[in-house]
Amino acid sequence: MAAPSTTGSFPNPYEVETPPGCEGWEEMYPYYGRFDEERREADEQRFWFWNSMHFPVPMPAFDAICIDTAYQALGSWQNRVFAVPPAMGIDWRCINGYIYISGNPVLDPDRIAERAGYFQQRAGYYYENWNELYAKWRTKMEALIAELGELRVPELGEYEPDAVAFEDQETSYCAVLEAYRRALRLHDVMWQHHFEFLLLGYGAYMTFAELCKANLPDIPDQHIAQMVAGLDVLLFRPDAELRRLARLAIDTGVDPAFVEGRSPEEIDAELAQSDAGRAWLAELEQVKEPWFHMATGDGLYHTYTSWLDDPRIPYASLIGHIAALKAGEDIERPTDHIAQERDRLATEYAALLDDAARQGFEQLLALSRTVFPYVEEHKFLCDYWFLTSWWNKIREFGDLLVAHGFLENRDDIFQLSRLEVYSALDELLLTWATGGRPRGPKYWPPIVARRRELLARLADWTPPPAVGAVPEAVLDPALIMLWGVTTQRVHAWARHQEGGSELTGTAASPGVVEGVARVVKTVGEIGDVRDGEILVCSITSPAWAPIFSKIQAAVTDIGGVMSHAAIVCREYALPAVVGTGRATSAIKTGQRIRVDGTAGTVAILE
Amino acid sequence: MSETRHTLPLAGLRREHSGSFGGKSSNLGELIAAGIPVPPGFAASATAFRAFVEGAGLDGMIAAELERMSPGDVDSVGAASHAISQAMRFAPVPDAVRDEVAQRYAELAEEAGVADPPVAVRSSALGEDSQDATYAGQQETYLWVRGADHVCDAVRDCWVSLYSPPAITYRARLGPSAVEPAMGVAVQLMVDAVVSGVLFTCNPVSGDPSMVAVNASWGLGLAVVGGEVTPDDYLVSKVTREVVREHVHDKDVQYVPDAGGRGAVRVDVPKERRGIACLDGSALDALVDVAGRVERYFGSHQDVEWVIARDGELPASLFVVQARPVTALPRPGGTPAATSAMALVMGAFGAGEKKD
C-alpha cells in the first residue's frame, strides 16, 4: 500500500503578513527570535508549529523569558545531559507575537548510536534510582522556593543605611542589581529543575500509553490515566484543604458568614468579629502556606496569579463546599473507590491482552506509577508555586521603577524585556547615585504604552497552526510526548490549510490509499469501474461483489461498520469509509481522493 | 414424528452438526446450549438440498452453466445465476422433505401456541461462517413467513441463493479448492423487533478486544445487515460499560411485518423517530452482557445478530438470532515482543535495546 503522501502545505513564515497597526511588533522580542533573512534558506525548509499549549496569547516582552529559559533547560537535559538519540533541543521564532517552535533532529546514524550509549547509561540511572533522586529533587525545589521568598528588593533612600557606613554592608546599587540577578538566576534554576525529570517521566507514561493503544486501540485516554494516576498527589491538596476548612466552618458555627455573592474581604470582616471566626481565620492562614500558591490559571504568563493574589476563587469554592455539606452532600474525594477502580481497570485490561503484551503492560504500568508523581507534582511546585511567587517578585522591581518615575504601574515592568529592565535599573541606580537627571521617566512609559497597544491588536490575529515545510514524519520524542504533535496531526493540519474539502464518515476498514475516484450511482454503471479505482457510491449491495477485487478502496454515502461494503472491504483488506453523507455529490469521477479508513476521512485532492 | 432424515430442532444441534446443517444452524444450537436467549426453531440439513437437486436432476445443468461463466464479467455471472435460479424455482421439493418441514413447523406452532406462526427462514451454508471464509450477505433470509407451504417455498428460495451472483463469484474467487456447495436452512420463530442490529464482541475495525461494537436501527434486522440505512453506531467498553463512541444517524427506512400477515415490507420510519437514538443505556447493557456470554462460550470474537422484541422488557426481550466467528480481524499490537519495560522505554526514545 502506498504511504500517505504529505500533500498540503503551511504558509511560508517569511510571507506571513503583519496585521494592520501592528507594525514594529518585533521590538518586543530578542533579535534571534525572528525569521531573519540570514537563516531564511534553512528556516523556510523547517517545520514550525505554534506552541499554543504554553503560549496561547501574544507574548509580553518580559514574559518571553519563559521561552528562552525553558528551552535552555529542555535542550540542556534532552540534548546535553541525556543525549536523547534522535533529537536535540527546540528552537523558537516569533510571528506577530506568537511563538513557533521546531525541533533539531539528529540525522547522522553514527551520532545517534553514540548518543544512545549516553542515553542508556544516564536515563537508565535516573529510572533505576527514581525515588531517591526524586526525593532529592523535592528538597532542592522547596529550598529554591524558600530562597525566592527570602529575596529582598532594597529600597533606594535619600541616604544609605548606617549599616553601609559602619558595618560593611554592600551599597544599595550593588544590592538592587544583585537582587535582580538573583531573581533571574532563581528562575533559571527553576527551569533546570523543571526539566530534569520531565522528559523521562512523560517518556515512561507515553510508552505505557502507546502499548495500551497498540493493543487496545479504542481505550479512552482517561482509562490509561486512571490506571497510572496517583491517589495522594500535591495537586489535589489545595482543594482538600478547602473542604476541610468548609467542614471546620460548619463545626464551629461560622458558616453563616459564607454567603454567595460576598467578597472575601466582607467574609473575613464578619469572621473577625467572633472568637470562632478568628480561630477559623487563623486556621486559614496555616493553610495558605503553601496551598494558596495554587494558580488561578495554567500558563507561563505574568497574568496568571495565585489564590493568595486573588482569593475569590478559593472563597467561591468554600461557599460551594459549605452549601453542599449543609445540603447533606458528600464532598469527599472517594479515594477508596478511586483506588479500587484504578486496580480493577488494570486487572481487566491486562486480562484482555496476550501474554507478551501483558508482561509489557504490567511492567510499564509499574514504572509509570513510579514516575507519575513527578509529572503531576512538578506542576504545583514549578509552574504554580514558584512562578506565581516569582512574577510577584518581579513586580517588586516594578514598584521600585514606579517609585522613581520610570514606570506608571508596577505591571508595566512586564512590557520591558528582562534585559531592558536591567538597563532601566542600571540607569535608575546610576542617576540615583549621581543625583543626575534620569532619561528613563520620559523614555520608558511611551514604550510601555505602545506595546500594550500592540499586544491588544495582536490578540485579534489568528495564527496558523504551523508554518514552513510539512514534515514527512514527526520523530522528535519531545514534540510527540510534550505537545502531542504527531505525523498524523501535522498532516491533518496541512490538509486543512490547503483548503481541500474533506469528508468524514465511519472508519469501516483500516488503511490509507490515494487514487482516482469512480462515482457509481446505479448498478448499471458498475461495469465502468477500472482496476485500481476507488469506488464511490451511495450504498453497495451483494450484487456488486465482482468489482471488489478491482477497486483499492470504497466510500459510501450511507452505511455503518457492519454494512456490506464495510464487511467486504475488511475481507479484501481495502480501506473503506462509509456513511459520509455526501460522497457521491461531493466527489466527481476522475478526481484524485485519499481514503483514510482508519480515521474515517476522505480528502478530495484535486 | 415418523422419520427425521432431513431435520432436527435447533436445540438438538451442536458444532459437530455444521458439516451437515451448516454453520448458522449449528451455531444457533450452540447458543441455545450456552443458555443464550434464541428464538426456538428447527433446521434442515444439506441432505434435504441434495435430495432436491438430485430429485430434480439439476446437477448437470448447474455444472454446465458454471463452466460457461467468466467470473470477472458481471453480465456473464448474472446470466449463469439467472439460468440456475430459474431451473431450481420450477423444480419440486421432494415429498419426504416437504412432509418433514411441515411436521416440524406444526410442532413449532404448538410451542408458540398460535396457528401458522410467523417464522424467519435463513440459509445456513456449509463451509460458510468458518474462521477462514466468511462472506457476508450472500445468502438469503426470508422474514415473517407463515404457513407450511410458504415455509417450504422459502426453504427452496434459500437453496436458490446458493447460486446468486455474489455467491458464485465468491466461490470462483476461491478457485478449484472450493468444495461442492451445499446448504442447510434454519427456521426460527419470528420476533417482532422494535430495534435490531448487529454487534461484534470486539471493534472489528481496530481489533480492540476491550470494546463491543453495536449497530442498531429500527424494525426487523434486514435494514442494518443490508446496509440500507446508516445505523446508530455505538462502541461500548466491556471494562467500564462506558459508551466510548456514539453516532446517531438518520434511519429513514425500516422493515416491518406486512399488514397482510405475510412477509416483511420496507417502510419509511416516521420522521420524528428517524434521528433519535434507538438504544438506551439499559439496552446497551443487555447487549454487552450477551456479547460477553457469547464470546466466552465460543472462546473467540463473534459477530452477533440480535433483536429486541416489541413486547416485553429488557433484558428478557433481547434475542440472539445468529452468531458467527469474526473473520478478517485486524490484529492490534505490533509492539515488539516485550522484553522489559526499560527496553520499551528506551525504544520510545530511539535508544533501542538497553546494554548491560
Give a concise summary.
With 606 residues, chain A is α+β, with helices and mostly antiparallel strands. Chain A has helices spanning 40-44, 65-81, 109-128, 130-150, 162-166, 172-196, 198-215, 221-228, 237-251, 264-271, 275-291, 312-326, 335-351, 355-403, 418-434, 440-458, 477-483, 487-498, 564-572, 583-586; strands at 47-50, 87-95, 98-105, 466-468, 502-504, 506-509, 512-520, 534-537, 553-556, 576-578, 592-596, 601-604.
SSE blueprint:
The complex is a heterodimer of chains A (606) and B (356).
Chain A: H1 40-44, E1 47-50, H2 65-81, E2 87-95, E3 98-105, H3 109-128, H4 130-150, H5 162-166, H6 172-196, H7 198-215, H8 221-228, H9 237-251, H10 264-271, H11 275-291, H12 312-326, H13 335-351, H14 355-403, H15 418-434, H16 440-458, E4 466-468, H17 477-483, H18 487-498, E5 502-504, E6 506-509, E7 512-520, E8 534-537, E9 553-556, H19 564-572, E10 576-578, H20 583-586, E11 592-596, E12 601-604
Parallel strand pairs in A: 7-8, 8-9, 9-10
Antiparallel strand pairs in A: 1-3, 1-4, 2-3, 5-12, 6-10, 7-11, 11-12
Chain B: E1 7-9, H1 18-21, H2 23-33, E2 41-44, H3 46-56, H4 59-68, H5 74-90, H6 95-112, E3 119-125, E4 141-145, H7 148-161, H8 165-174, E5 183-189, E6 193-200, E7 211-218, H9 222-225, E8 232-237, E9 243-247, E10 253-257, E11 264-268, H10 271-274, H11 281-298, E12 302-309, E13 318-325, H12 341-348
Helix pairs in contact in B: 4-5, 5-7, 6-7
